[in-house]
UniProtKB/TrEMBL annotation:
Keyword Transmembrane helix: yes
Organism: Polaribacter pectinis
Domain of life: Bacteria
Transmembrane residue ranges: 21-42, 48-69, 81-103, 109-126, 138-160, 166-188, 200-219
Domain annotation DUF2914: ranges: 287-354
Keyword Membrane: yes
Pfam families tied to this protein: DUF2914 (PF11141)
Name this protein carries in UniProt: DUF2914 domain-containing protein
Amino acid sequence: MNTYLKYKKSSFHNFIRSNRKYAPLFFFIAGFTWDSLTLGRIDRLYDIIVLCTYMTLLTVSIYFFNLVGNEKWENSFIKKYGDYLPLAIQFFLGGLSSAYVIYFSRSVSLSKTASFFIILIVLLFANEFFKKRVSNKYLQFSAYFFVNFTFLSFFLPVILKEMNTAIFLISGIISLISTIILVVLVYRTNPSARVEIVKWKMLSMILGIYVLINTFYYLKLIPPVPLALDKGVVAYNVEKYNNHYNVTYEVDEWYVFWRDHKIDFNRNSNKPVYVFTSIFAPTDLQKKVYHQWKWYNPEIGEWQNFDKIGFEITGGRDNGYRGYSFKNNVIDGEWKVEVITEENLVLGVVDFNIKTTNSVKKTKLVSREF
């Protein structure tokens, strides 16, 4: 009781009371920022412990938050510290979402998956557009199910050391069952929840998100985390020696920070074009990936598939598993090499424009060791 009275009189408590409108958003940003600074590898023990802790505490916080209005808990610690539970929910939501963004951002290209990130942002910031904000139970459980599903979709492959469609489907089923169990527990233990929650509406929202995520997966719009494309460049030459790769390529202007190589590839006639990639994979996870070469046919307005070159990767290397492919017979124009898995999920895209000439002056040519 003395501890509680100290909290009631503390400046922190008064600050939360007077800024309760913006405090949840602040804690969401705090969770996002903290993980951005501390998380690194998805298969690192520290990261695993932190993410499991966040998921567990988010579940507990949502459950306790929905008990605050129950008279049964009037004199319990749940009622006393109930003002802090919305902040905890926002913090753990921010922490989990930031972890997902961190692992996705390791990919060299997000062009195929930008829509998935838009959904992530909309779901997690939607509370600012709801009158009840975090107290809105539909928002709570929708956001919970989304982060639960996305968390399991990259956590299970790390633990099982295997990545395929079956693992993704299992992740979805586990998250769906666990979310429904949490909703049922809240519904049964809190009389007010029975008034606020319309069962068919809640179930429809959760199932809708479930179908949406699976649709994105089958449309190849979700990056295949925990795999990530660290580096991807189009090069004039690639040489391997003593487990090192020496890559020669032309760099772009300094202000083109989102791409290492120059997009206009000036090819000498009869010389091959190389594409070098470095792929991150968790320790002991084995997977076959492919370089799918594509050329844009301006006459029909479509991308045409050319060579598809595959190689095995084994996780564990901090700087990624390195590999390359090359093509001799190329046509001038727009090209891209999609780095894909066996399920045709896109890890990233290396795009470039080829122009063949007999005399080429490369002003920004560099050689780099990987």
